[in-house]
Amino acid sequence: MIVLEWLFLTIAACDAAEPWQLGFQDAATPMMQGIIDLHHDIFFFLILILVFVLWILVRALWHFHYQKNPIPQRIVHGTTIEILWTIFPSIILMFIAIPSFALLYSMDEVVVDPAITIKAIGHQWYWTYEYSDYNSSDEQSLTFDSYMIPEDDLELGQLRLLEVDNRVVVPAKTHLRIIVTSADVLHSWAVPSLGVKCDAVPGRLNQISILVQREGVYYGQCSEICGTNHAFMPIVVEAVSRKDYGSWVSNQLIPQTGEA
Amino acid sequence: MADAIELKTAPADFRFPTTNQTRHCFTRYIEFHRSNCRCLAAKGEESNQCEKFAKYYRSLCPGEWIDKWNEQRENGTFPGPL
Questions:
Q1: Which among A12, A52, A155, A249 is most buried, taking Cβ atoms within 10 Å?
Q2: Maximum distance among all alpha carbons in chain A?
Q3: Do A117 and B19 touch (CB under 8 A)?
Q4: Which residues form a coiled coil (chain B) (predicted)?
């Protein structure tokens, strides 16, 4: 039974929100894996501190009950203990800060030139994606809108409020540059599995670099209040093999070259 | 399926190391349209160097921005050092 359960968990990755979910979604980029590892590091110290504080609190309430201990003590000084309870938290903070800064600075490292640039443009209330690396003129050759599929049009097995008509197709194991902006109000392009959340500001181009490590479909939602349908403009990223990505791009470009 | 799509795009520019790439897109656009005049004047056709700048700004800048700037250039109201 346990073996079967283990097999099932590794086959079906959690790349979308689950009902009653407590933890993170499964990581698909090195950045998200870094965030999860940092969370585990900090959580360890968190539990230590929580248990210690609760223990002292309960102990104090138990032993110094006013009926059992009617005369309160008046201890004012205690130099040794004061030094200890300053030094120990500093050490704990240092243990927390080291992995935290390591992750923070490694996020900013521009190591490799990206292979693809994709623009995600927020509108009220949908996303437009432009793949302009294949333009031969100022005319956009590969651009499409991505609307949420309404609940009434969902097929069996699809996720409510998360599915879209046109997904963002990207090649896996390839360095991507995503440029996020907006055409009207503030939005935010967020995909938890990829460890990405980037504000879409009108008049500004925000760049994020990601490397999707495995093929799969990753879901996210707009994360900056943008009006009535803010909850109904999700994001779906589909990571495929490079070959499949090449076929997909060719198929999208053909109608344009046919017309031209 | 056509021959393999080449996976190439505007490289990371160390003049613009931060998240905000607005200036990067604008600078590439200006570089092309400034050099475009020179390239066209000098060689009578777009050289590969100019075409490279063109590819860069098309990759980085949203289509709407490019259309707006092209229109402004035609009207003579483009707010940049061309």
A1: A249
A2: 93
A3: no
A4: none
Are A95 and A170 in the same domain? no
**Can you tell me the distance from the alpha carbon of B9 to that of A115, in angstroms, rounded to the nearest whole number?**
6
pLDDT, tens digit, 9 for 90 and up, residues B17-62:
889 999 999 999 988 888 666 655 555 555 667 778 888 999 999 9
- Percent with pLDDT over 90 in chain A: 74
Flag whether residue B48 sits within 8 Å of chain A, measured between CB atoms.
Answer: no
Cβ within 8 Å, pair B12-A134: no
Closest residue in B to A174 (Cα) is B7
A115 close to B (CB below 8 A): yes
B21-75: CATH superfamily: Cytochrome c oxidase, subunit VIb (1.10.10.140)
Q: What is the domain extent for residue A166?
A: 116-253
Is residue A36 predicted with pLDDT exceeding 80? Answer: yes
* pLDDT band, very low/low/confident/very high, at A183 (cuts 50, 70, 90): very high
The interface predicted TM-score (ipTM) is 0.86
A138–B2 CB contact, under 8 Å: no
Mean pLDDT within A170-184: 95
Domain count, chain A: 2
